[in-house]
Amino acid sequence: MNTQIISPTTLIIDAIPHPVFHGAILPKWAAAAEAKGFDIVGRIIDRLHLALRCRRCGATQKVRLFTLMSAQPLCQSCLLADWRKDANAAGLTFLRRDPAHRHYAFYLAPCGHQVRRQFELVKRMAAGVVSVRCETCHAATEAEEAEARGWHLTSADPSGNPNYRIYTHTACGHDQRIARANMQSGRFSCGGCGKDWPGAASYVYAMGFTLASGREVVKLGFSRDPESRLTYQLRRDNEMPCQILRVVPMATGHAALCAEKAMHRELKQAHPAAALDPAAWQGQIRVKTEIYDGSLTPVILGLLDDLEASATAA
After folding, report:
1. What would you report as the CA-atom Rg of the chain, rounded to the nearest whole angstrom?
2. Phi/psi of residue 48, each to 5°?
3. Which residues does residue 176 pair with via DSSP β-bridges, in sequence order?
4. What's the pTM?
């Protein structure tokens, strides 16, 4: 119990003493309390306040008479139990309410960091609608993504766009506003020292895919970052079997483009039936052309061998 009567004139609720107000308890008050899941312990403070005991948990709390008669009083003890239950179901540990905002509380995340969340958001986490995300750990992840690309995560976007960050290029010290998605995929260049794609180093590649029908297909193309091209642009379904079969480094994007186009011309002349109709891969691979039947894979790999040999000789 969270109440203690220490004298006929004082009632303690949650360690806080309240003066007993001597006055009658009207039958309609008792009926309203019973209908809403409470019993009236007594009148306290003044003529406008009551002490109500929750029939669900037995805890007592101070409630205004107006609240009892016009609304549904909330048992703070039951609320606390529900918040803790929701937190546990969401993988969190309830710590305390946020004194600055009644809709928020502080929780301990599985990683050990403290997070501030809305009660309703925690309910959604508990239901599996959204997942737990720690801002501290997320910031570390973003910093690691930047470091892997040779950049340093400097600050949030000054314009307040949640999709952008300010990064500093480690090599030259240039600060640049970059979308986080582009930092993840590598599809950007440094505005301080970088080159546009025609002058930047690139690759001609061959990639293999297995369509939902089970058919094996092969794609010939070029990209400054084939791994990023496959992961973030071409593949629609993360479960789709696919792999990079071969890459040939080229000095510039322009050279890679010219080599790729020459190979496509050769393939279409020598193997016109091997170029697939886009309907075969529609909705599975994000590209409109440059997909061939898998039987052409050895031929394409042979062309890449020849390209690498000629590039090395040059």
Report:
1. 33
2. -100, 0
3. 167
4. 0.49
